[in-house]
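stuck on this chain:
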Amino acid sequence: MILFVAALSLFTLILIVEDVRWFEISYRALGAVTLNGICLNVLLDVSVIDMLCGAFIWLIASVVVRFACSANALGQGNNWLMGAIGLLAGVNGALAALGVYGILMIATHLSYTRARLRPKGKRIISLFPTALSGGLTILLVFCCRIAGFDISFGTAEEISTDFDLLLLGGVVIFGGPIAVVSVTLGVTWIIFDHHTLQRGCSR
């Protein structure tokens, strides 16, 4: 479990830094966060049904926000980020994740509003890194679960199936190598940042 926590933390940091620096969601980092988060959830007895329902709810919410506020309100990467938050938080952690994410989004938005604004028709769109609030939300959800805090507020019950037991066995057997490879890739990514390499090649 320690390796999964390390890999999740490392790739969440990469996800946040990439968005803060370049205002884009790194799909590779997000994929690594999601993979390690799923493995960690399995070890923490979070059912697959719970995770899938959480992802579905958050994806629908992101699509509604995207079309209600204009296509420029949320990028495609932000939709997948919200889906990943829902998947990792699950239904049990949906309320807690929504509350934390909302507070962090407002704080981040207010912090960036004065620094980065651009007109778009009748709307003023504020550019700010959504991965900052999303990544911190994911980390806080897992911190609470690992510490044993009940983040469901009694709104949902765990549903265990035979597939959950099978998945748990797979994570126990193959989880170590997956986590080691993830951490290695994360460290390599930090050393050989692809944006830095691109700038170097263009000179």
Q: What stands out?
A: The CA atoms of residues 55 and 170 lie 22 Å apart. The chain has eight helices and two strands. The longest helix spans residues 162-191. Strands lie at 117-120, 123-126.
